[in-house]
Design goal:
Strand order of the largest sheet: 3-2-1-4-5-7-6
CATH superfamily: Vaccinia Virus protein VP39
Number of domains: 1
Structural class: alpha/beta
Largest sheet: 7 strands, mixed
Order of helices and strands: HHHEHEHEEHEHEE
Radius of gyration: 15 Å
CATH architecture: 3-Layer(aba) Sandwich
Length: about 190
Amino acid sequence: MSTDPGHPDMPNSVERMLRPERMETLDPFRVLSHCPVNPRDTVADIGCGPGYFTLPLAKFLINGKVFGLDTSDEMVEACRGRLDEARLGNFEILKCGEYDFPVAPASVDGLFIAFVVHHPSDRERFLTAAKEMLKPGGWCFIMEWHKKETESGPPQEARITPDEMRQFARNSGFRVQGSRDINEEHYMMTLINR
């Protein structure tokens, strides 16, 4: 997921994912202002990496909880360390599989999935498996790369257009609520569990 070695041109490192320049185009608090998250929600951050979005989510969820999920031991440890250092107590960081999530079915209000859907080979299976964690009517907030040439990001063949994402979402049992560009390179989409 966030740390899949399938992109040979992308070094998978904590430092790369937390580099300060990333704030210029992906300010986590600006991104969260577009997310339907409520301070009382329980949210699963799938592909949490070193916690770039997990930490701001935990700070926002003052009466809620965040589950940080990743397939990489290195990222799970980095994320846990960052949230421990911030002295936040409303989180649980867990290792997961590509299609297997250690969170009870229908137990979360929202899913936060940043730059992860392009990794699994079976995107509908991934979204369907993730949806199992969601309560009925729960939200899913996805961010992905536009399918065009950019200085960084995954290879073109791995990228997903917004139209393709809508189709994967519908085929996985979601209702598409809306989408918009974040910047020239990235877009966001909000889905609802039917």
